[in-house]
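Example with several molecule types.
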Amino acid sequence: MRTFNITLLAIFVGVIILTSHAMGQQAYHWLPIAAAAEAEPVGHLFSFLVTLGTIVFLSVMGVLVYSILFYRASDTSDAPAIRGNLKLEITWTVIPILLVIWIAGYSYNIYQRMNILGSLPLVHLHLLESPAYAETGSSNMQPTEQIEVIAKQWSWSFHYPSQNVTSTELHIRVNRPVHLMLKSEDVVHGFYVPNFRIKQDIVPNQTIAFKFTPNRIGQYQLHDSQFSGTYFALMEANVFVDSPERYNQWLAQAATRPSVPAINPAKSEHSQPPKTPLRSNWHTVPPAQPPVVNK
Amino acid sequence: MTNISIKSASEPEQTDWKRYFSFSTDHKVIGVQYLVTAFIFFLFGGLFAMIIRAELLTPQLDVVNRSLYNGLFTMHGTIMIFLWIFPANVGLANYLVPLMIGARETAFPVLNAIAFWLIPVVGILLLFSFFLPSGTAQAGWWSYPPVSIQNPSGHLINGEFIWLLAVTISGVSSIMGGVNLVTTIVRMRAPGMTFFRMPVYVWTTLSAQLLQLFCLPALTGAAILLLFDLSLGTDFFSPFKQGDPMIYQHLFWFYSHPAVYVMALPAFGVFSEVIPAFARKPLFGYKTVAVSSLLISGISTLVWAHHMFASATPNWMRMLFMATSMLVAVPTGIKVFAWTATVWRGKLHFKTPMLFALGGVAMFLFAGITGVMLAAVPFDIHVNNTHFVVGHFHYVVFNTVSMAIYAGIYYWFPKITGRMYSEGWGKLHFWLTFIGANLNFFPMHPLGLQGMVRRIASYDPQYTGWNIVASLGAFLLGMSTLPFIANMVSSWLRGRKAPNNPWNATGLEWTTSSPPPLENFEEIPTVTLEPYSYGESHRLTTDPSSI
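Resulting structure tokens for the full complex:
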């Protein structure tokens, strides 16, 4: 009987390990296609978390389900009065502590590798001072252009100072670190591109330096991740990761275009609200003037 | 002869239904008042959730317009937290704590009654705000400035004003309730009821209420300052003047993260009572489980910035709060393992409270795992403010805490009403809730991983599939309350008479009559034993005909 139990336990442990490993591998597919250098380590971290999480979930659930199946009461008497077991209690305190240290250490490592955040101004109450910004990128990179990202209710615009180009589309070069200067003109917004796995809140009256490296050519979606008022859901923008040639071509062409007010979904919906069956006539903040862009 | 009857002071209060509508100072009446009021607001919160899910059934905006959507999710969150979970937990605690520690009353009965009567005021204010010309608050339940201090209507009395007023009143009510419960537990225990003879439910209530006293003033203060910014033109949080919106976020989360434990700790308490009773075994590792409640309280005051990993927080703060946030997994893990070990080799009876408790524990396990994931900064940066967080949060507040409140209501229903509930209706309620909740909240995890941002009324069509599942789950979850209501009402009116201890459970509350008399016990009991003495020869109560 004892051998039978040990065999059963061994099979259970084997199944848990195999399933957890498989889940960890699957986890990569639950995330959107990775398109930035920062996305890869986040994928590894998520896979690791899913593997460990599955081990814990299946182990505890295994015991619970086993009990539910095999320890149903047959009479009204009490079960054996087991009050505790010091060794067991110490074990299940120490194991989570070790796991937590492991997870925190691994996450710390990955966060260091991502290195997305420029130094933040610690004191940001002085209006007249220019925002503190320190270049923390590695020195062997050639200097790259800083793109200004301006968020307002409810539009994104991107300003390329070297060519004096403003656009509602963010164009960036593949495999080149992108340096963004995030600014908000009204409320807290959030810069979020799921394919890059990066996100940063943009606090009004602060300039937040932010950097990442896109590594896959394509078109992606920028979302506002911090609730910004009535037309929050419409605050999206296209992000194009271009080859260097295409990028230069786009920037040169944009510089030749005249400046015009951008087409803005929030503005259009504000003037022509959709006919929903349930609606309020509450006052809302009117959309800010759309940015003036070279297309 | 005159026919004047003199009402003596010791004469019981009126015992019919009318006393539940009176300004009663009996903790049991107040407990039931809290529970019923909270449930009524829960139905409103649930209705709003179903409208939100109806909107999210399709990618386009086709049910409500955007301002109404924003108002609905703001009110859904606010009502569920401040008018359902908090009051329902306080209701259970009010009813149970004096009975469990062998006290005749709580420490401050009048304060207790005032604390309760503030709750309907909060609820009426919030629901009334839908009818203001400027509408209800639309800045989300966390009401971050500057969105929350934008006032396009120009009216002094606007939705956000009412919201801030309501949150402040709710805070005052909770602080009153906290003072009362903490004092009661510390000062009014029966002879022999040492701290390590208190049921875990009392431990968790104490831990939760200490958190209220320590952290809630931060939120109440922040709400008052925000109200000044909104209505009087001060600039505490206004970024374009001298203020800083980040300070609001710090004050808000300094309370609102621990608030999750104010909600969850009593749920852990309910699991710790129900599981031993229906496994017929002592709670495994009682002392560790009891002390881990205080540890959860302590650690949770140092984790607030994990809600702000993507805010303008510097790197060192992100790393520090990652470490403290993950540490919470240790004492909560201790509890989950202890419940699992309690079930192991038990004699399990699958009555409705046990189903809700086991379902709640299983789903809390899942919530705990995604919680550790969220504490890992690089992963959190990706899913922060997406539906992954919404899913995780609902696994905590609905799938764990609300399931525990249901478990508690069923478990103590015979004590409270003196009647048995219907087991068949109860089980139907459990299965509808369990299936509905998982269908509703699980899909939010893949949606968040794919990048679907929270609080949006319309979305990219790529997210449609999981949203349909979530919405159907939400409608099922809404329906699941119907058998509960039918069961509670009909059983209270016509249910089978309940014995004093139908579950043959340990705990002082089962030694008195069902329902208990005005002053709880004929004679204040003297406690000589550790709690959860199932299977031990010296049981406090034994009635072999029960369970």
